[in-house]
């Protein structure tokens, strides 16, 4: 199943887009676009898919996504069948990277925000006090215009830049590039794994690539990636499996081998652990969503 590219019209007198999505259910299919996007669900429940992530959403759910990341919000059956007590409603904000000029992100004041923008390539679910603050600002933006509207977006940027109340959604395989503020060693490890995950990779091999002793590498990896090397490798592989399940009709067994799994029992166990369902159930969900 291929994601559809979506482009929303922008009003000529505005530098970015703010709109309310409201109706019986959210009709937009599996899609992507070149803009960064905030999605705040005010009313409705269901499942959201962001890259290879599948999770539940409820009222107040807030997600921030980077450009070209496929996603869809699928309402629960009561909304789709028109039996919910109220309509589904969400506030959405779109902006492109250079919406205030091509050198906008080069300004020194924007440096703290760059890390969050880079992480948004995987999609971020925003939690806690940060979510409450941003939700309030986004709801107010619907009735704002001019500098007030722009200042609200900058207030959101400021809150995010100084917060850690967010979690990545899609697997690391959706992060195709690392930014300069990451160390060379971090980038070298990540790039090596992304280039070679389809075959057997040993711990000693990756440690050598990073010019580290194996024990040192294990400690370094656990500290910086917040998981073991094997857990990270399986996350990468399962992420690519999900991409192939979505983009092709290839047999699940063949996909597993293509993505570096040489033991089907382990493959099924890892997929269930990370996605909460079997590969076949994941593919059926994609088919139902695209119907």
TrEMBL record:
Protein known as: AraC family transcriptional regulator
Pfam families: HTH_18
Domain spans labelled HTH araC/xylS-type: 187-285
Keywords: DNA-binding, Transcription, Transcription regulation
Keyword Glycoprotein appears in the UniProt entry: no
The gene coding this protein: mltR
